[in-house]
Backbone:
């Protein structure tokens, strides 16, 4: 298809290499139609700032943001900030998500522990984790543990709820079949319950990733000396709008990256499920 | 586990005055039935007659309210490892490839045997597929292979062909008959298809209101032709009784 198109062009203009515009268009077509709108918005934004419709003081032009990004990358500050932010996010996710996963499994399998714990979790779940900020500062001060605690609390509930729900919604017919085929408790869990709950668990993980970034931004804006959130609030102090907007773009990119990883996990782990295959 | 080369004998099943109630409603009422080792018995009946409940009791998936189910001389209290069940839905694990579904619950070097059993149901080339891409008939063949790899002495078939199209169903009936003849397990087939019952079974039992209403021996040579006059007469006789016409 691509080849046929290119051949047609070479007939019109005797140049072997396709024109840069053609190549861009090819990339757009391959990358999907989804890029058309964001690219148009960026172009429109650049034009509106150039002609003065948007005051530069409030919103810098895209090219300035790219320049600011380049400067931050060159100085090495960007790598430091991203590194520390990612570290916080991953530790918080590991603690909160890990606990949510374990307790979701335990409460899903054992009715006794569900009766004991689930209603408590359901009560605590309704409290937004960011409402705990004043209390957390009192308990942990404004250091690293406070931020990791907030992220852990935030990601715990989506992982817990979806793991629990996933375990409970495994097809009872399959469990009965497992009994008939002599699966012991451990084999039943490994072969039937865990794989059956996995789609739901991964949905929980994706929710958790969203909450993870949100909590990270807020907690880094409060009294941090490193991290992307700190970079943003510092830029605000000095009215460096280009860095402020760049930080926001950075959050969007990191959020997208996390989503891509989650989707990759879904494709890898749920390859058997026609709903998840190569989308 | 015994190997396929050893002569297999089916288990004897004795159902002794079994009553099973759900709430106040009795589904089976003092029902007694004996299955001789290695025979093929079909149980027919309308929906709600209690035929599936009977199978679940024999499988050890439920316990009778009163009476006893004795399999191989042992009262049934839990699931018997020599009994395997084929359900109406194939109940394959969708996250396991076909070969691993067949080998479910087995330890050691089960793969060559699984491949052999898959070949005996005509699915040797689908071992690497996920169940999601198989047709209904293929799924039931995998379920049959999964049951047979355990060398069961009692195979319970809970309307396993009910959801298949007519041609696939005939194909599966022939396959089940062939495997039963070569392996000599005791087979109990629950079905609402009277023709299927008379084609496959040595004996057809009709359950009505939780009791045995009819018990006929099918003494016709195998393989049975569906167009056979004796078979048609027998089918008509049972059908009339089911519909309350005779």
Residues:
């Amino acid at each position: 298809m691509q080849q046929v198109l290119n051949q047609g062009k070479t007939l019109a203009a005797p140049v072997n290499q396709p024109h840069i515009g053609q190549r861009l268009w090819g990339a757009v077509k391959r990358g999907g139609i989804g890029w058309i709108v964001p690219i148009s918005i960026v172009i429109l934004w650049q034009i509106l700032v150039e002609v003065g419709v948007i005051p530069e003081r409030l919103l810098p032009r895209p090219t300035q943001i790219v320049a600011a990004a380049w400067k931050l990358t060159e100085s090495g500050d960007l790598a430091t900030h991203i590194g520390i932010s990612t570290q916080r996010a991953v530790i918080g996710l590991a603690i909160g998500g890990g606990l949510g996963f374990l307790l979701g499994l335990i409460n899903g399998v054992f009715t006794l522990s569900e009766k004991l714990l689930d209603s408590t979790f359901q009560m605590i779940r309704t409290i937004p984790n960011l409402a705990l900020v004043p209390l957390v500062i009192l308990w942990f001060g404004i250091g690293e543990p406070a931020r990791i605690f907030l992220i852990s609390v935030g990601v715990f509930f989506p992982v817990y709820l979806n793991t629990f729900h996933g375990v409970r919604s495994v097809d009872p017919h399959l469990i009965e079949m497992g009994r008939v085929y002599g699966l012991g408790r451990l084999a039943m869990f490994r072969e039937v319950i865990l794989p059956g709950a996995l789609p739901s668990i991964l949905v929980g993980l994706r929710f958790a990733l969203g909450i993870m970034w949100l909590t990270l931004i807020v907690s880094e804006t409060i009294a941090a000396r490193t991290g992307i959130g700190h970079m943003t609030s510092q830029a605000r102090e000095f009215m460096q709008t280009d860095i402020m907007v760049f930080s926001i773009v950075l959050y969007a990119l990191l959020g997208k990256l996390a989503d891509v990883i989650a989707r990759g996990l879904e494709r890898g782990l749920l390859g058997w499920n026609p709903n998840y295959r190569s989308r | 586990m015994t190997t396929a080369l050893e002569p297999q004998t089916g288990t004897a099943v004795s159902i002794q005055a079994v009553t099973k109630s759900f709430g106040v409603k009795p589904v089976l009422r003092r029902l007694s039935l004996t299955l001789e080792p290695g025979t093929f018995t079909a149980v027919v009946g309308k929906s709600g007659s209690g035929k599936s409940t009977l199978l679940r009791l024999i499988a050890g998936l439920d316990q009778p309210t009163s009476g006893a189910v004795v399999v191989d001389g042992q009262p049934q209290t839990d699931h018997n490892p020599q009994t395997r069940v084929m359900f109406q839905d194939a109940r394959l694990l969708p996250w396991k490839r076909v070969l691993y579904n067949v080998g479910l619950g087995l330890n050691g070097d089960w793969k060559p045997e699984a491949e052999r059993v898959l070949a005996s149901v005509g699915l040797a080339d689908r071992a690497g597929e996920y169940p999601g891409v198989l047709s209904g008939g293929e799924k039931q063949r995998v379920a049959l292979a999964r049951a047979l790899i355990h060398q069961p002495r009692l195979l319970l078939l809970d309307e396993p062909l009910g959801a298949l199209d007519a041609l696939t169903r005939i194909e599966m009936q022939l396959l089940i008959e062939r495997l039963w003849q070569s392996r000599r397990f005791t087979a109990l087939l629950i079905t609402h298809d009277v023709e299927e019952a008379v084609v496959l079974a040595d004996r057809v039992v009709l359950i009505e209101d939780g009791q045995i209403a009819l018990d006929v021996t099918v003494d016709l040579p195998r393989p049975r032709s569906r167009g056979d006059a004796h078979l048609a007469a027998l089918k008509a006789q049972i059908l009339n009784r089911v519909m309350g016409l005779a």
In short: Residues 1-15 of chain A have pLDDT under 50 and may be disordered. DSSP finds twelve helices and no strands in chain A.
